Description:
The chain has about 375 residues and is of the alpha/beta class. About 40% of the residues lie in helices and about 25% in strands. Probably acts as a heme chaperone, transferring heme to an unknown acceptor. Binds one molecule of heme per monomer, possibly covalently. Binds 1 [4Fe-4S] cluster. The cluster is coordinated with 3 cysteines and an exchangeable S-adenosyl-L-methionine.
Amino acid sequence: MSRLGIYIHVPFCGRKCAYCDFYSVNWSKSAAVDYTAAVLRNIRHYGDKARTVDTVYFGGGTPSLLTAEQISSIISEIRSCFALEESAEITLEANPCTLSAEKLAELRKIGINRLSIGVQSMIDRELKILGRMHTAERAEQAVLEAARAGFDNISCDLMIALPDQKPEDMRFSIDRLAALPIQHISAYILKAENGTPFDCAEIRDRLPDEDSTAELYLAMVELLEKQGFMQYEVSNFAKEGFESRHNTRYWKCLDYLGIGPAAHSCYEGKRFAVERDLSAFIAADVQQVTVTDESPCGFEEFAMLRLRLKEGLILDDVPEHRAELLKKLPPLLKEGYAETDGERIWLTPKGFLMSNSVIEYLVF
Length: 364
């Protein structure tokens, strides 16, 4: 059977960020204990020694709020119930405030080999606007401590188009991040998501307009690539060989199993999601899921996800759609939204900015 990625959604946060619409609740010691026990039950339920797991991703929330012992027990259970590949990529998302030299050494020892650190900005004023608990100095210290602990696959999150952000502010954060011993940057355009504290006129009026946001994005791509972080997906940049193996599963329609409240899966021919409810997850012997797609990864979804990647869509993978795709392509080439070598179609950075519209025109 095909290889498998496992996603563990850890729904705890020390404090909810004002822009975030991901599912999370306040951390407590007892809730973390009960949550971990529920994760272990679900791993045993889905366990299949015929499935080789080559990526594990602890996302959230703030997974680094779990103890090293709790994380270790989850990794051990995956190893017991699946065929966990020795060279598996095992990622932990972390808030700089939850990391210490001691904690990092423990994480490295239990098998975490990739860290994704939620930095977001290297300017204290911007971090305060975002409601982050750390300072730029603490973020820098966390990265340096991680490198000293032996981590050689470190990713940092960066947000752009922040309230009142100027191009020079973004450049400052990129330059300061790029000077650190990191190998990957995930860079996102801030959106005032519905229902979040940022969903208000006071914030929206301070966000860069559409043209300014486009200029920031294109400048960011150029700056990161000059620093050696090559774009491989709409929002992701890596030094050679350090692309996220787990996240690439999503864009290539490969199998992944999600465990935890609000986790999503594409597993055994179906897409399904777990309810956004920690109490329900803890109470159930097996997580309750809702099937969201009975037959995922058809042409439209496959092409849409592949076009998020810089390598683009390989036409031999969709031979029955080759002629129609190439017929639609000329206006996109003329406007600089896409490129082709006759065997692949891929979007340019300008095309990535308009990806929803471009992909809809090309694929649907």
